[in-house]
Amino acid sequence: MNSKRSEPWFNERLNSITGQKNWCKQDEIIYNQTNRHASKLNFFYQAFEFISENSIFGNYHEFGCHRCRTFRMALLESSRHFLENKMRFFAYDSFKGLPKVEQDHEFGSRWNEGALSTSKDEFKKLILDSGFKLDNVRLIEGFYDVSLPNIDKKEIYSDEKASLINIDCDLYESAVPVFQHIDSLVQEGTILYIDDYFSGYKGNPQKGVSLALNEWKNSTKWKLENYRDVGYAGRSYVLYK
Ligand SMILES: C[S@@+](CC[C@H](N)C(=O)[O-])C[C@H]1O[C@@H](n2cnc3c(N)ncnc32)[C@H](O)[C@@H]1O
């Protein structure tokens, strides 16, 4: 019997994967990264279509920028909707990697102090090398517990609100000051993307970034409606009153 003909879902891709004898760890990493970033890119496409269709005027804020992957997705998809000159793009990071915290996330050295570090210059170079401009990009350097409470919101944001907020900073301790900070940036229709909803802690929503989100949900006046799930760990919401 011809198995390809009898199993309509069987395709060349599946055949090539199961048939590959020398599949190694590096292949798995590339495979995961490729699929993960494809779903993130698809999310950014959908988010900017939502923003454009609903005329949500506001800026992009990313908390946790590292290799500038999602930040460039935001630059790309905003430009595809002719929004790149109508909004500003804020990148908040220590630019020195993760802070030191006591952890039980079971991610070992992946989340140690200093892990996931990209310098400001490297970050800017990634933007420029991809053909984007820095004109509407602003880098806010520092660990959030110190940098965010010290931001002069009137001066930096001039009363502009957020259209899309991306929280991708892995740790509960990092996310708490971020949620405190964004409360006044949110407007009706802001999309909130939590990259690490199910990262670490065996996906327990009462730990990590999802705990910080749930604490904020209980204290803010904003209501959250589920929007898209993103990759294996991410979630997003549309905010409303
Ligand atoms: C997973 S990476 C972000 C990945 C990025 N969005 C991308 O697509 O390439 C996490 C980032 O969060 C930053 N970070 C985590 N906790 C922080 C804190 N408390 N203050 C400042 N930056 C922090 C790290 O420096 C790191 O760049």
What does this protein structure show overall?
- With 241 residues, the chain is of the alpha/beta class.
- The protein has one domain: Rossmann fold, CATH 3.40.50.
- It is 39% helix and 17% strand.
- The chain has nine helices and seven strands.
- The chain has helices at residues 3-6, 12-18, 25-53, 69-80, 120-129, 144-147, 153-157, 172-182, 208-219, and strands at residues 59-63, 89-93, 137-141, 162-167, 191-194, 223-230, 234-240.
- A seven-stranded mixed beta sheet has the order 3-2-1-4-5-7-6, sandwiched between helices.
- Strand 1, helix 4 and strand 2 form a beta-alpha-beta unit.
- Helix 3 runs parallel beside helix 4 and helix 8 runs parallel beside helix 9 (208-219).
- The mean pLDDT is 91.
- S-adenosylmethionine (SAM) binds at residues 64-70, 93-94, 97-99, 116, 118, 143-144, 168-171, 174.
What brief labels describe this structure?
7-stranded mixed β-sheet; SAM-dependent_MTases_sf; 7 strands; TylF_MeTrfase; Methyltransferase; binds S-adenosylmethionine; globular; 241 residues; Rossmann fold; alpha/beta; single chain
